[in-house]
Amino acid sequence: MTKTPYENLRGWTHLTSGKVRDLYAPADLSAHSGRDALLIVASDRISAFDHVLPSPIPDKGRILTSMTLWWFDQLSDVTANHFVSVEVPETVKGRSMITERLQMVPIECVVRGYIAGSGLAEYRETGSICGVELPEGLEECDELPEPIFTPAAKAQVGEHDENITFEEVKDRVGTGTALQLREKSIALYTRAREIAKEKGVILADTKFEFGYRLQPGEKELILADEILTPDSSRFWDASIYEPGKPQPSLDKQFIRDWLTSEESDWDQDSAPPELPADIVDKTRERYILAYERLTGRTWKK
Question: Domain named SAICAR synthetase/ADE2 N-terminal: which ranges (predicted)?
Answer without folding.
Answer: 15-270
